[in-house]
Amino acid sequence: KFEPTWDVTTLFVPKRTRGSALLSYQIPYNTAYLDGSPSYALNSPSFSSGHVLNDIQTALSMGAFVVVPDHEGPLAAFPLGVQEGHAVLDSVRAVLRTGFGLAEDARYALWGYSGGSIASEWAAELQQQYAPELDFAGAAIGGVVSNVTALID
C-alpha cells in the first residue's frame, strides 16, 4: 500500500562526527523469530555475530552514524520484501528528522548482507516511488538471497 508503518530502529551515534554520514546497516538475520530482531539481539549478552559489532564499530570510528532497523517489522515477518524495504526507508527518514547531530545535507548509504540483502535491495528498488525525498549515495549488497524458497528449505 506504500504507507508508513512502525518498526523499531537502533541508532548508533559516533563520539566524534562532522554529522555528514549515515549508514543504514541491514544486519544478516534470517528468521521469523521476534527475539532475533536486531534491536533485541544487539542488546543480548548471547549475541554471537561479532563481525556485525565490528562493522558497526568501524563505521562509528570513521564518524558515521549507523542505523540498524528491525527490517522484518513488528511481527518479524520473513521474508516480505516490500515491508522490509519500507522499514529501511522509514528508519532513514526517522533518523534524518531526529536532530541527533546529522547535517541536513548528510550523505547516506545502504548496506545489507544475507537476510539484510533482501531489505537493502527492496529499499533501493522502492526508494524512488516510496521515498523520493531520499537520495542515497549508494548501496552495498552481499550474500544476496536469490532464491527465497531455497533459503527456507
UniProtKB/TrEMBL annotation:
Instruction: Cite the entry's keywords alphabetically.
Output: Hydrolase
What Pfam families would the database entry show?
Answer: LIP (PF03583)
Molecular function terms from GO:
triacylglycerol lipase activity
- The regions listed as transmembrane in this protein's record are none
InterPro entries registered for this protein in UniProt: AB_hydrolase_fold, Lipase_secreted
Highest taxon of the source? Eukaryota
List this protein's GO terms for biological process.
lipid catabolic process
Gene3D superfamilies membership: alpha/beta hydrolase (3.40.50.1820)
Q: Which PANTHER family match?
A: LIP-DOMAIN-CONTAINING PROTEIN-RELATED, PTHR34853
State the name under which the record lists this protein.
Answer: Lipase
* Source taxonomy: Eukaryota, Fungi, Dikarya, Ascomycota, Pezizomycotina
